[in-house]
Write a structure and sequence with these properties.
Blueprint (H helix, E strand, L loop, with lengths): L26 E7 L8 E10 L2 E11 L6 H15 L7 E5 L4 H8 L8 E6 L9 E7 L4 E11 H13 L3 E2 L6 H10 L1 E4 L5 E4 L7 H15 L24
Parallel strand pairs: 1-4, 3-8, 4-5, 5-7
Antiparallel strand pairs: 1-2, 2-3, 6-7, 9-10
Length: 248
């Protein structure tokens, strides 16, 4: 079963969103879905605007990397994108897939972006976590540690949020970069009901959903993450990963 047609539709607004200046955005976010051999790495950025009494999220960068792109090149491109959309009012919130490759997530955290990079772990849960876990990420060659928030999110909810936002026209995907590839991923996504009567969204055989997940992460960041974050390092005793007590 394919996703509803609105997943691939382009919202139509009275004013053209591609003309909205980035400096007028209320906030920006960058979603990074990491892959290497079998899946692509994808970077998608969104800008949030107040339009006619509601919030509208508009794509800015849509980038899919070739398979086996070295992670250092991905990080360099991410830094360039983050710099390009930073304004005097705000810097983008970067949200990185921490589930598929924790080493890549740690390396991005170590780059020292501000605001601090946030990790997301998409699972089969039916609901997003109410609070993040806090990981201690090594820095300075392993001599130090920095606290990083990792949110466990529902993959289903994240995907459905994209479809709903396109349907109510609060999400606009501009025709730039790899937008056509993103739209192909959305239109090809299948809604599968498992034998346990659970719902799962998956690409067709041989297909991908990397750009879609990058978009979903950026949308999650703008809708759910606090705009100002302050992390307190977990106690050094015991395991490096703690519960949400370190989030303030």
């Amino acid at each position: 079963m394919t996703m509803p047609s609105h997943m691939s539709s382009q919202p139509s607004l009275t004013e053209e969103p591609d003309a909205w200046p980035l400096h007028a955005a209320r906030a920006t976010a960058i979603g990074v879905d990491y892959g290497y051999s079998h899946d692509h790495t994808a970077i998608v950025s969104l800008a949030e605007f107040a339009q006619s009494g509601r919030l509208v999220h508009v794509s800015h960068i849509i980038k899919q990397f070739p398979l086996q792109t070295p992670p250092d090149l991905v990080r360099a491109k991410l830094a360039k994108i983050a710099s390009s959309i930073a304004t005097a009012r705000h810097r983008p919130q970067i949200v990185v897939d921490s589930r598929s490759n924790s080493a890549f997530f740690h390396a991005v955290v170590q780059m020292g972006f501000s605001p601090a990079v946030v990790g997301v772990s998409a699972t089969g849960s039916e609901h997003h976590a109410q609070r993040p876990e806090v990981q201690l990420v090594p820095t300075n060659g392993g001599q130090g540690r920095v606290a990083a928030a990792v949110w466990s999110i529902s993959r289903n909810q994240a995907v459905e949020a994209v479809g709903a936002a396109l349907n109510d026209r609060s999400l606009v995907i501009l025709d730039q970069g790899d937008a056509n590839t993103l739209k192909a991923e959305m239109s090809g996504l299948r809604r599968v009901i498992t034998t346990a009567r659970n719902i799962r969204y998956e690409p067709p055989a041989g297909g991908h959903d990397d750009l879609l997940m990058g978009l979903a992460y950026a949308l999650f960041a703008l809708r759910h993450l606090p705009r100002r974050q302050k992390l307190r390092k977990p106690p050094r005793r015991g395991r490096a990963m703690t519960n949400s007590a370190g989030w303030t």
